[in-house]
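Bit of a strange request maybe. I'm writing a small parser for structure token strings and I need a real example to test against, not something I typed by hand. Could someone generate the tokens for this chain?
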Amino acid sequence: MTETENEALDAGEPQQDDLDYKINLLFPGVVVRKDLVKAVKGNAIVPSYVLEYLLGQYAASDDEATIQAGIDTVRKILAEHYVHRNESELVKSTIKERGRHRIIDKVTVTLNEKADVYEAEFANLGIKGVIVDSPVIKAHPKLLVGGVWCICDIEYFHADDQRVVPWILGSIKPIQLSKFDVDQYLEARRGFNTEEWIDLLMQSIGFNPAMFSRRGKLFQLVRLIPFVERNYNLVELGPKGTGKSHIFSEFSPHGMLISGGEVTVPKLFVNNANGRIGLIGYWDVVAFDEFAGKKKRTDKALVDIMKNYMANKSFSRGVETLGAEASMVFVGNTSHTVPYMLKNSDLFDELPDAYHDPAYLDRLHYYIPGWEVDIIRGEMFSDGYGFVVDYIAEVLKSMRSQDYSDRYQQHFTLSPDISTRDRDGILKTFSGMMKILFPDGQATKEETEEMLRFAIEGRKRVKDQILRIDSTMAEVKFGYLDQDGTWHGIATLEEVEYPTYYYRGRTKKGENEPEGPSSETDALGDATAPTGVGQSAEPEPESDLFQGHREYQQGQRGVSFDSLLVPYLRGASTITIIDPYVRMFHQARNLMELVEGIARAKDPADEVALKLVTVENQDGPDKVQRQLEYLLQIKKSAGMLGIVFDVELVDPPAIHDRSITTDTGWKILLGRGLDIFQRMADNPFDLATKYQKYRELKGFGITYLRQFSE
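Reply from user aminoacidic:
Good idea to test on real output. This should exercise your parser:
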């Protein structure tokens, strides 16, 4: 049992099995065990909501026999009816020979103006020109834009006229929930406390809530706001691998994920040549993947139309002005650390130049700090119960017309300093979070305050970066007053962690900024600034560094990388380590500890290029795979510290001396490489596990050479 589980038991908290029992009790038939999706998916390239739709039909139970029977049924359905692209000819033959066959495929419909008919194209089956009746289009207009996964009956009838398509659409049913009982949903919600409800929602999007902090859970749930709030504009920038686009590609049949490079005015808004409306007119959420990239080419006309739509919820078709409700989401990767961006530019630095514009940025309602979102790991996925995604997707869709933005007013008043656009962003985020977490609109004062603070922080992150780009914009005092008139200022976490860089080029405004150690809690609740990494120790004067050779005895203690190596690496922007033996876990751990030492010694806003030249493990493919996994994990962790880690694998004869060289002129000859510590007992209570100076050394020599001065 884990330490977390032990603590939960000590506190008398319900275990996850108890929550799963309650979920099945209060939401029978609309929840499913989330690990079943992987069990049935196989090599079918379909969104999770398609699979969960089927699982919801046959395996929505907590009875193991029912679940297993449901899995078998879904597998059989996929095997018989899902169209694999490489088996399309076989499926077409089946339709021809049987005369009629049911398939699962992605269907896109276009209007053939010359023939005055609607025609369907089936993505995997590879057929097109299939006639679709007008009532079908009226019932399911999304077929016209982007394509919809459907269950279809296809018939075959060959005619002598070769112009007649032999494929006939017998029936079509989009894969989404037809209806649900909103009153039952609200009533069942009352059976959960807030923490349980958050965990249920986390499991519904596929994550194990035990692996996330409260703040981390809320960031995941902010990604749902575009589905529940009309015309909500969200941006998330951060490192790769944090699942930024997952929600928008897998979660809901009402969302569309497109590549940022594929965006055009006709595709997004309107084709003026034929008047056809684009994605904005049909989808609840349009998300732009891979949106970041300073060198990406952009269409200025598209940017201008997008700015107008994001501000006014409308766009033009010729002389006609059309309204739409689609929320817009922009996700992209960052390539630098937060302090680096704050010191050298701003937190929107990665955006294409056309979007690095205060007028566009000011229309964003919330900025999810992707650097605070954990990189997705296997153990973070849930095997607990959650809503079938098309069920929760319909719940969220049904609440888009409701407005909970005033639910804080009986307790709090927003700062009068906040502009109209700032207020809109805060209120839309607050409304969205309230609808997600408290769908009946009932929350305690403390819960209301938590949502309000969270909403203010996300909009403040947007506005503070705009102020860096456009110094003519007025400073804003972000915060709120409670009923007795007490002021509560809000700060972003990066503002607390890196105040020196955060206020570059401008001054703090009033009580908005943290003024002492206690302000971290006041501004962020349970968030505290990290210690250790990023806090540079006093550098040892360059002239005092030893040059020459030293020997260390076997069994000796009191030595660490911080004393042995880090003083010589301080100030370097390029470091090269040559060591053939970075293969085993303890050797990789030693390297990671050196990375941490380098990070502590440098300015948090600086970047260091660290290169390792080593040899591939010679003990078989399994050992090689493990070695590469260690190095990849180091690369990810180092990147978060502002260290760009690269590895070069060479043949064993190519490495002679083990050494470290820097662009500041130092060369350190390492007799044993970094593998200088004797093996330790795997004991978490042993100080040597955490602190190198308590470990026994292997015998080794080290030579410090000064090749040149800076």
